């Protein structure tokens, strides 16, 4: 009897164990057998992780500035034109394109901080110190220099002007030269000279015809046809680079090299005129 019960007990134990095993959740297979056997927590393969390609880093795209186009005078009618700084018998008169917005608002020439006019005036020798824009009115008395523009009305930049009004400014410059009779006009920018040339010759100068510096005597400005005893032969023309911060076709050193001969000439002319005169002396 006991053997019968013993046999049945063993059989029941086996059935219990089988049932228990069947109810247990199966272990997840692992690619690392030794770790699974030791009961260790499964770790990701570091080699597999590092072999994944790095996510691409996208840089924010720079917004391109919209190029300026012609703006009618009404757009900036709230701004006043810049007053010319002129006097009789100056050594030179600088001719700019037109006043920018900052210049018109402040009422002083080349007032925008990015404009290199006052820096180049000093480094070339036209002035013996670097002036501020609000000292522009001192140019005639201190250095026998003056300032005007080919177009009077202010704009953000030269692209807001038309070619026609640039060319139309040429005869106005001629008349200013006849009235004030400077020795020279310094054209501050290639585009200004092209407008004057276009007015005179009906076309832009060719590459062979254009050059920086002194122009041929036949291009003198303000020449009086009927030359009498005190006849005016016109102002000699020196073409130099634009000083605008937007004009980046030439490096700063290249601009200085073009300006330098004009600065040297200005110094020589002041010495010849004994300017500024010594105290008690009368200027020539």
Your description of this structure?
This protein has 284 residues and is α/β, with parallel strands linked by helices. It has one domain (73-273): Uracil-DNA Glycosylase, subunit E (3-Layer(aba) Sandwich), CATH 3.40.470. 36% of the residues lie in helices and 8% in strands. It has helices spanning 2-23, 33-38, 46-50, 101-106, 117-124, 139-143, 163-180, 190-201, 252-272; strands spanning 92-96, 145-149, 184-188, 213-214, 236-240. Strands 2-1-3-5-4 form a 5-stranded mixed sheet, sandwiched between helices. The longest helix has 22 residues, at 2-23. The chain starts with a helix and ends in a 12-residue tail after the last helix. Pfam families: UDG. This is DNA glycosylase. InterPro entries: MUG/TDG (IPR015637), Uracil-DNA_glycosylase-like (IPR005122), Uracil-DNA_glycosylase-like_sf (IPR036895). Residues 1-15 have a biased composition (Polar residues). One of its GO terms (molecular function) is uracil DNA N-glycosylase activity.
Protein topology:
Blueprint: H1 2-23, H2 33-38, H3 46-50, E1 92-96, H4 101-106, H5 117-124, H6 139-143, E2 145-149, H7 163-180, E3 184-188, H8 190-201, E4 213-214, E5 236-240, H9 252-272
Parallel strand pairs: 1-2, 1-3, 3-5
Antiparallel strand pairs: 4-5
Question: What attributes does this structure have?
Answer:
284 residues; 5 strands; 36% helix; 9 helices; Uracil-DNA Glycosylase, subunit E; Uracil-DNA_glycosylase-like; alpha/beta; five-stranded mixed β-sheet; disordered N terminus; MUG/TDG
